[in-house]
Amino acid sequence: MKRHLISAADLSRDDAVLILDTAEEMARVADRPIKKLPTLRGRTVVNLFFEDSTRTRISFEAAAKRLSADVINFSAKGSSVSKGESLKDTALTLEAMGADAVVIRHHDSGAPHRLATSGWIGGSVINAGDGTHEHPTQALLDAFTMRRRLAGGEGDLNGRRITIVGDILHSRVARSNVHLLTTLGAEVTLVAPPTLVPVGVETWPCEVSYDLDAVVAKSDAVMMLRVQRERMNAAFFPTEREYARRYGLDGERMARMPGHAIVMHPGPMNRGMEITAEVADSPRCTAVEQVTNGVSIRMAVMYLLLGGNEPALSTPSTTSTTRTEENK
Amino acid sequence: MGKTLIRGAKVLGGEPQDVLIDGETIAEVGTGISAEGAEVIEAEGKILLPGLVDLHTHLREPGREDSETVLTGTKAAAVGGYTSVHAMANTFPVADTAGVVEQVWRLGKESGYCDVQPVGAVTVGLEGKKLAELGAMHDSAANVRVFSDDGKCVDDAVIMRRALEYVKAFDGVVAQHAQEPRLTEGAQMNEGIVSAELGLGGWPAVAEESIIARDVLLADHVGSRVHICHLSTAGSVEIVRWAKSRGIDVTAEVTPHHLLLTDELVRTYNPVYKVNPPLRTERDVMALREALADGTIDVVATDHAPHPHEDKDCEWGAAAMGMVGLETALSVIQHTMVDTGLIDWAQVADRMSFRPAAIGRLEGHGRPVSVGEPANLTLVDSAYRGAVDPAGFASRSRNTPYEGRELPGRVTHTFLRGRATVVDGKLA
């Protein structure tokens, strides 16, 4: 594995499958009475959050703690950052405290890349979402969820048809998913009003459609992205109702999906906007499962980045032995 | 002041000649000129140009003396071969009154390294609402003829029209920073393939082109001249070419960095590449080079924009826009335009001295290298090759995109009215 996880584009197919396989092992820990591994004992993981995101932060925190790491939560609000401290000085402070890994969420695209390449810190950098750029662990947990539901929890996503619907322009989840899912062999279609598709999308390895009805019937998974209501004030779409009618997923549209197909959502959901309550609460919707899987994925990422070259579990399965061989 | 004999230099890249400077003026040009009583500079193989003129420099004083002062900026200009620079108006306070432009003009006089011609703001506080006292700035000691809200666009069509008309009374020119503000809200880089991948806010070419199209039509309508700052897209070139073909009195400038660098560099997220207008695509770069060669773009202007280290040593979104350029401009032009065979040294003199001086209506600059003219001269060793080392800059700021990059050419001597401001590549 590499030292940092900045972009899903940096992951090869083998890297990605290794993370997913490792996450499967990690998931088994959650089924034990004591949900903890000693793997990262004595290592320090800092959650450096410049944006409020309780969901992502507690997921990383839970993951680090299950690996027995010491966790420091550093939130920009109410800290030296809100008093004008620069990212550089914050990074130097964390370095001085001996952070082995920094999990960073930042409102500026590229901030994790800058943190990893500027020489400010020596530890691993994990991108927990940067601006409108990427959110690689979200894509990994999405792929993990799809692999379990659609591919028997093994291998890659070869030939699976995945549709991502919503605010592609501003979505770091979409960018990371396009990279990762295509690396894993899936065929990705983006669906959005043209205003929410970036200029330059033509070079992305995916299809783009403006018509949700045309693609739902051909999708193995439909991922609904959160759409901020404020976007309509910037004229990206006329009204919430029109958006919901054209690009929202309701029971009728869901009924046209193939029987095995799933509905995904990275959360938090805007019920009534991009997804109706009927769909959100249906057994086909994996939103809650994605949260659970997020912890396993983040355990796997931290384990692999922080030098986990021992098998993750003391009683590895035969497949995991092969994987650890590859890892060395 | 004594005599200096520059011996055997290729004047504007032509045949080797001797040039004798006596006092502030050029006394003789020819071959075999007597060196008696003169200090001799052996210039065999070097290129002698008229002192360079920059239409677009940010000297930052008053207000941001932590990034540049008139003194450090004019030193950087001299090192780059410039004998005159136009100081942009976006200082603190803004150069929108006779008092501020006179202050900048006086600081330039005191520096002694390079003439400083202040640019006046078009509107009060660069806010685009109310015309600044353009006439008062012109009538001041600074004798302002170029007006610009650079850094901001004069986006209100009526204000722009009035400014274009008003400055005709004293042969002024409005230099427009063409950027439609609504189309560039939150813009961080060129909008295209790279911005889509990086998730950085896009600065579309149309935001520049739509303003240029409007302004050439306005200039045509009211019979004024208009100058376009830092033109950066292939589409802008087409509009200016069309306007010139119609006889519209438009001139345009291009920066060295837009002739060399592309938005692919932004993939590093290194803010040293963050600049406004942003770095564009390879296609744009090639169109700009062609336009500078065929004269559609009249001049090279540096848009020298110094920033303190901390404003670039940060994440992309928090970083300031701009690059220093005075000390590397001529090398970049040699690299992109001369060594590629697109233009010769006489055209370099035209694009970097004659035409910018003519647009700014400067007297005593951008003059031919001939007897009786002011001795504003730049001697260039075009055979030199070396890596750019910002540690050696005369500018107070180091935000160059060329650190470590090998570039050709080096200014060995600069003369400002007969006095050497640079000798053997070092400030005199």
From TrEMBL, chain A:
Positions in coiled-coil regions: none
Name of the protein in question = Aspartate carbamoyltransferase
Q: Which biological pathway?
A: Pyrimidine metabolism; UMP biosynthesis via de novo pathway; (S)-dihydroorotate from bicarbonate: step 2/3
State the family it belongs to: Belongs to the aspartate/ornithine carbamoyltransferase superfamily. ATCase family.
Positions annotated to bind L-aspartate: 83, 172, 226
Give the EC class as a word: transferase
Q: Does the keyword Transferase apply?
A: yes
Q: Which domain of life is it from?
A: Bacteria
Tell me, how does this one assemble? Answer: Heterododecamer (2C3:3R2) of six catalytic PyrB chains organized as two trimers (C3), and six regulatory PyrI chains organized as three dimers (R2).
Q: What is its EC number?
A: 2.1.3.2
Q: Which residues form the Aspartate/ornithine carbamoyltransferase carbamoyl-P binding domain?
A: 3-147
GO MF term set? aspartate carbamoyltransferase activity
Listed PANTHER family? ASPARTATE CARBAMOYLTRANSFERASE, ORNITHINE CARBAMOYLTRANSFERASE, MITOCHONDRIAL
Q: Which reaction does it catalyse?
A: carbamoyl phosphate + L-aspartate = N-carbamoyl-L-aspartate + phosphate + H(+)
Q: Which Pfam families does the record match to this protein? A: OTCace, OTCace_N
UniProtKB/TrEMBL annotation, chain B:
Locate the residues binding substrate: 58-60, 90, 276, 307
Cofactor (UniProt): Zn(2+)
Keyword annotations from UniProtKB, A to Z: Hydrolase, Metal-binding, Pyrimidine biosynthesis, Zinc
Q: How is the cofactor bound?
A: Binds 2 Zn(2+) ions per subunit.
Assigned EC number: 3.5.2.3
Output the Gene Ontology terms for molecular function: dihydroorotase activity
The UniProt annotation places Zn(2+) 2 binding at 150, 177, 230
- Source superkingdom: Bacteria
What Gene3D superfamilies does the record tag this protein with?
Answer: Metal-dependent hydrolases (3.20.20.140), Urease, subunit C, domain 1 (2.30.40.10)
Domain called Dihydroorotase catalytic: residue spans: 45-233
Binding residue positions for Zn(2+) 1: 56, 58, 150, 303
Catalytically driven reaction(s): (S)-dihydroorotate + H2O = N-carbamoyl-L-aspartate + H(+)
The active site consists of 303
Q: What class of enzyme is it?
A: hydrolase
Q: In which pathway does it act?
A: Pyrimidine metabolism; UMP biosynthesis via de novo pathway; (S)-dihydroorotate from bicarbonate: step 3/3
Question: InterPro entries from the xrefs?
Answer: DHOase, DHOase/Allantoinase_Hydrolase, DHOase_cat, Dihydroorotase_CS, Metal-dep_hydrolase_composite, Metal_Hydrolase
* Family in the record: Belongs to the metallo-dependent hydrolases superfamily. DHOase family. Class I DHOase subfamily.
Function statement: Catalyzes the reversible cyclization of carbamoyl aspartate to dihydroorotate.
Designated name of the protein: Dihydroorotase
Question: Which organism does this sequence originate in?
Answer: Streptomyces ochraceiscleroticus
List the top taxonomic levels of the source: Bacteria, Bacillati, Actinomycetota, Actinomycetes, Kitasatosporales
